[in-house]
Amino acid sequence: YALSQALPAALEHGELFLEYQPIVDLNDGTTCAMEALVRWKHPVRGLLGPGEFVPLAEDTGMIVALGRWVLRRAVEDAASWPPAPNGRRLMVAVNVAVRQVHEPDLCTDVTDALESSGLPAELLQLEITESAVMNPGEGGRPALETLQALSELGVRIAIDDFGTGYSNLAYLHRLPASTLKIDYSFVKALTQPAVTRHDSAEAIVTSLITLAHACGMTVTAEGVETAVQAAILRNLGAERAQGFLYSRAVPHDRVPELCSGFE
Ligand code: G
Ligand code: G
Ligand code: MN
Ligand code: NA
C-alpha cells in the first residue's frame, strides 16, 4: 500500500530507471535486441525489481503513466545505441501492460516517442503478455484493434510469457504479432532432473514452437541459463534466446559492450 502511494512521486523524482537484457540469435550468437526492465531505487527500501511494484501500479492505474515513461526512456536510449559489428541496429523491447493496451492514447504515445527520438518503428518491439491480448474485454478498445494499429505503424509485437495463460488458438492466429516468447518455466523444465522433470517438457516446447511458426511468428525462449538449454532450444527450432547464460539486465551505459553478441 505505502509503495503504491509513493510511486507517482518516485517517477517524478527520477527514482525509476531502466536496465537492459540482451536477446540473442541462437544460430550465430549475435545480439538482436535489448529488453527494457524497470527498476526502482527506493530511498529507504533499496533497489526494487518490477515484480515488487509493477503489479501495484497495475492495480492503481499508475501503470499507464509508468508505462508511458518507460516507453519514452527506452526508445530514446535505443536511438543512441551504436550498430552491431554486422551493421545491424539493435531493437528495443518494451513491456506493455494490459491497462496500456486498453488506453486510447497508446498509439499516439508510441508515434510521439518514435518521432521525437528518431528511432525507426521496426526497431521497437512491444511485449504484451498472453493473458493481456487474450482478454479483449475490460471495457476498453478491443486488444486486436489496438495491436493492428500498432502493427501498421511498423512496430513489432511479441506475445510475452506464452504458455502460462489460457489461449484461444484461433485468436492467436489472427494477432499481428511477429514473435512468441516462450515462458521461462518451460525452458527450466527442459533440463530438470529426471525425478522432478515433467516428462513432456520437450514435447510441449516443440509444440509451442510449431504453433508459433504455423502462425508466422519467430520464437524467443526466456530464462535460458545453461548452454544445454540453448542447444536443445536451437535444435527444436527456436530462433532467439534470452537469459542469464548470456547476460543479466545491465545499466544503459553497458549496452554497447553487449552489442556485438556472444561468441
Ligand atoms: O525483474 P523481474 O523478474 O522481477 O520482472 C518481473 C516482471 O516485470 C517481468 O515479467 C517483466 O516483464 C515485468 N516488467 C519489467 N519491466 C516492465 C515494464 O516496464 N512494464 C511492465 N508492464 N512490466 C515490466
Ligand atoms: O516476464 P519477463 O520476461 O518480461 O521478465 C523478465 C525477467 O526475468 C527479468 O526481470 C529477469 O529478472 C528475469 N530473468 C531474466 N533472465 C533470467 C534467467 O535466465 N533466469 C531467471 N530465473 N530469471 C531470468
Ligand atoms: Mn517481457
Ligand atoms: Na516473460
Automatic annotation (TrEMBL):
Annotated ranges, domain EAL: 1-263
Protein's name in the database: EAL domain-containing protein
Domain of life: Bacteria
